[in-house]
Design brief:
Chain lengths: ~425, ~260
């Protein structure tokens, strides 16, 4: 009986971490459904970006209030997790506050955790107010109904509860309060429990301790289903982000090969195709993106990393002026489709063609509203690139479906025939020189 | 106005210092042609050894690429590259940020490796070398705001060259609330110039023009023929034609010194 709680704790821990690991593997599998893209160069710059942008939160503070509050929550999250280490050791070995042997340093540590927990609590409350009372518009766009809206709130409630439990746990730990070192915040909570006997206090303390660690494990497993995945994926996402000038769109190699052939007079168009080594290359590559398989793995990782903060949408000129397009919705719909494909694979062992693809949820109207201005890319605090998905989908519409808007077809015909988007003769290009 | 073509240069066995890529707007659009001519006036005044491709120039393919037509883009790119490589072009200057971006970033992988400059960067370099001078003149003390073209600013992080030129005009350079990396698009990019916009509750150029009107400028300075069109239209829709002018930076420089 003596070891029962240790065993229960171990089972809880293994189950929590095990289930999470299983889902992480699923995410990695799904991300790998994307096409290859070389983002393995220039590792020093990539590392620097990751440290500045993900670890250092440098792009968060473009919006000072949200940025500042986010940094508190983020630092709190990381630092307070040191306490989780103690909880795990205590839980597994039946010890109580194993690190307290560190003496006054322990008091300093726990004191810092308490201050942070308090600040995190306040910040999270402010976040909630910004969402629900101030109703900051980017939290109320039309893609933010149902789960996406609730997801954000669940996370806030989770954090409020976890921080409260941590402080209550300390407040009701009579021994800890008696030492009176590190109870900077909890000493003010302790009086709330005055009048309770030692057993009741112990029960509350144990209760808070167990619910706290169980809550953390539940939260860990919630990540997979939530926008909160960014706490992990922000790191690889900023590492593997595009390093080129934002104006540079990739040149499709498949197109280059064809165009070179078309322009090369020595190519025999009736020549037998060259035998290829792999069966894979027998199927001509699709131009542009119809489904998630046509996006590259970084774009898929982008979708999983998106925190749905809506900064992109709030700076999108199309969205600001009431158009359908929302860069955030592009990321959310992409993730939903990846998840759908993932579940398909879970069920069938491999992907079985279904009726859906990216165009099931992303409309042409959204895609054609983009001005390719890069505001969304610039704004994203963790370097997500919605524009690249929009362009890849446009490419599919134009090159595979010939489904460009009529005026754009006219523009392209002009370029093809006259070398200009308007109907002017190429030979007249220098007429301006002699015009008055 | 002295505007030699590459073909003429080659016939004389000369290689110019820089190719002026005029672009489709600069060649054909009535408003943009004025910008082209203003830029040439400065090049002539500074005795810059330049040439244009003239009838051998063709669309860079930018609008086709942004619209998703990678085929047409690469056809255009490879044809242009063939022409420019035959002339052994090393350096290009253009007054269009879309041409600038495409030539600079998207041509190299297709075999076109050139040093590409936006006209504001080029003029800044002439200024630094002492080859041109810019003085206040006509615009001294005026309030001027600069609208960052997306393909110059965010796309290529050129924010300072145009501003330094404007400051040289001894004017009051005022910034809109959305400027530099936070600048709002004029609404023309991504091939939007060539189509009706999707339904919404406002035109993007009107939204942007309101940003500008808010800071009460005498002049909105631009560095892109398409931004120029969009902002000019925006000013018209706000019925501010009498109060606010939309001018390219090269036009400001030319007018200031009455070139």
């Amino acid at each position: 009986m003596h070891y029962l709680s240790n065993i229960i704790f171990a089972i809880l821990l293994i189950a929590g971490i095990g289930f999470f690991t299983k889902n992480v593997k699923k995410i990695i599998r799904n991300i790998k459904l994307g096409r290859a893209v070389d983002r393995f160069d220039n590792s020093s710059l990539r590392l620097k970006n990751m440290i500045n942008i993900a670890l250092g939160q440098s792009k968060m503070v473009r919006r000072p209030i949200a940025g500042f509050l986010h940094i508190i929550v983020y630092v709190g999250f990381i630092i307070i997790n040191i306490e989780v280490l103690e909880i795990i050791i205590d839980g597994l070995f039946g010890t109580h506050r194993i690190f307290s042997s560190l003496g006054s340093f322990y008091g300093f540590l726990i004191g810092s955790f308490e201050i942070l927990a308090f600040l995190v609590f306040i910040s999270v409350v402010v976040f909630w107010i910004r969402r629900m009372i101030l109703r900051i518009p980017r939290f109320w766009n039309k893609e933010m109904i149902g789960f996406p809206k609730n997801d954000a709130l669940y996370i806030l409630y989770f954090e409020m509860v976890l921080m409260t439990l941590f402080l209550v746990m300390n407040a009701t730990d009579t021994h800890f309060q008696h030492i009176n070192s590190g109870n900077i915040i909890s000493q003010f909570i302790a009086p709330l429990f005055n009048g309770l006997d030692a057993d009741a206090l112990h029960l509350i303390e144990r209760g808070a301790w167990w619910i706290h660690i169980a809550g953390i494990l539940v939260f860990l497993n919630y990540l997979y289903y939530s926008k909160h995945l960014h706490i992990l994926l922000a790191f690889p996402n900023t590492y593997y982000a595009n390093l080129n000038a934002k104006g540079k769109f990739n040149n499709l190699q498949s197109v280059t090969d064809e165009v070179k052939m078309m322009l090369d007079p020595s190519v025999d168009p009736y020549a037998a195709p060259v035998e290829s080594d792999t069966a894979e290359t027998d199927v001509p590559e699709k131009f542009g993106a119809e489904d998630i398989f046509d996006l590259n793995w970084v774009q898929l990782m982008n979708a999983y990393t998106c925190t749905e903060c809506g900064r992109c949408t709030s700076v999108c000129p199309a969205n600001i002026t009431g158009k359908e397009l929302s860069p955030r919705a592009i990321m959310m719909k992409t993730r939903d489709r990846i998840e759908e494909v993932g579940k398909n694979i879970d069920k069938n062992g491999e992907f079985v063609t279904d009726e859906n693809n990216l165009f099931t949820s992303i409309t042409n109207e959204e895609l054609w509203a983009c001005t390719s201005c890069n505001a969304c890319v610039e704004e994203c605090p963790i370097n997500i690139d919605p524009l690249s998905i929009i362009i890849d989908m446009r490419r599919f519409l134009v090159m595979e479906k010939s489904a460009a808007p009529q005026e754009l077809n006219a523009m392209m015909t002009n370029i093809e025939n006259n070398g200009a988007p308007w109907q002017y003769n190429q030979l007249d290009r220098l007429n301006w020189k002699d015009e008055k | 106005m002295n505007v030699p073509t590459m073909a003429e240069m080659m016939a004389q066995g000369k290689q110019p210092e820089v190719l002026f890529w005029v672009g489709c707007a600069g060649s054909f659009d009535d408003r943009a042609k004025k910008i082209t001519k203003a830029f040439v006036k400065i090049l002539n005044k500074a005795e810059v050894d330049f040439a244009v491709l003239g009838a051998e120039e063709s669309c860079t393919g930018d609008p086709a690429k942004r619209a998703g037509n990678e085929f047409l883009f690469q056809m255009q790119a490879m044809t242009n590259i063939e022409v420019m490589n035959a002339y052994e072009i090393k350096k290009i200057v253009t007054a269009c940020p879309h041409c600038f971006n495409t030539l600079k970033n998207e041509y190299p992988e297709l075999g076109g490796q050139y040093e590409v400059m936006h006209h504001t960067e080029f003029l800044k370099s002439l200024l630094d070398q002492g080859r041109i001078t810019i003085e206040g003149g006509l615009y001294k003390g005026k309030r001027i705001t600069f609208h960052d073209p997306c393909y110059l600013g965010r796309a290529n992080e050129v924010y300072e060259a145009p501003r330094e030129l404007i400051r040289k005009l001894e004017v009051e350079l005022i910034e809109m609330k959305r400027c530099k990396s936070n600048g709002l698009c004029c609404g023309a990019g991504g091939a939007q110039m060539f189509k009706e916009s999707e339904s919404g509750n406002k035109d993007i150029n009107v939204e942007r023009t309101e940003d500008a009107v808010e800071v009460k400028p005498d002049i909105i300075a631009t560095g892109c023929p398409f931004c120029n069109t969009m902002m000019t239209d925006g000013i018209k829709s706000k019925e501010k034609e009498g109060a606010i002018e939309v001018l390219d930076i090269v036009e400001l420089i030319v007018n200031a010194q009455d070139l």
